Every structure is written in C-alpha cells, then in structure tokens.
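User: I'm writing a tutorial on reading structure tokens. Could you give me a worked example: one chain, its sequence, then its tokens, then a sentence or two explaining what the tokens reveal?
Assistant: Sure. Here is the example chain.
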Amino acid sequence: MSTPRPGTPGATRTCPHCKTTILESSTVCPACKHHLRFDPAAEAASRQRSVPLRVEGTITPPDSDTALEYAMVLTIVDDNGRELERQVVGVGALYAGDKRTFTLSVEAVEIKGIRAPRGRGKH
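And here are its predicted structure tokens:
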C-alpha cells in the first residue's frame, strides 16, 4: 500500500492523543473524538460528511452452558481483490445472558476538484 503525499486526498498522520493513524484532513479524531485543530470550515465540512456504509449486528451465546469467544476482524480490500488492511479490532468472550452489538461505519467526505495521480487508481 503506498502512502499519498501530504496535502493530497488519503494522506495520513498520527493522532497526538491516541496515536491512531487518521486522515491528514481530520479536524476531529474518529477514534478518540479529540479536536485536533480549529477549522472554521469544519462545521460546513461536517454537513458534507456522509456515511455510505453502516452495518450493525448483535451476537449472543447459543445456550446457557456455553461460552462464546469472538474476534472482531476488519478487512479492507481494493477493487482488484488485494487486501489493503487487516486488523483485529477487539476480542472477548460472552457468557449466558451476555450480548454484544458491533457497529461498522465508514465516514466519507467528498474532496472536489482532485484527480487521481498518474499510474494510480483509487486508494
């Protein structure tokens, strides 16, 4: 996976609070929700933010005398089937009466007037 140059769509940096890799253009860290910088245009940009994908599901153990171990794995694959990213987001166990709800959401902001660099398609 190649890293875009600073200032281009898809360029990343590290959140100074939680050390998560985030988009360089972020004004608020999507992981820890800390504000990263003041941006008067952030309010307008937040209105243009969309969630093109959101999936939610709940799991419970199958019966009362069984524990259910789980691992939440996130995988990102490009349009050629090449795996770009794979992370274990969390692990745990569920016992009788427990349940966990998992939500995956993809937040997106449209960047207008930008063309893909030569020799590269979508990131």
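What the tokens reveal: The radius of gyration is 18 Å. Strands lie at 12-14, 21-23, 50-59, 68-77, 83-94, 100-108.
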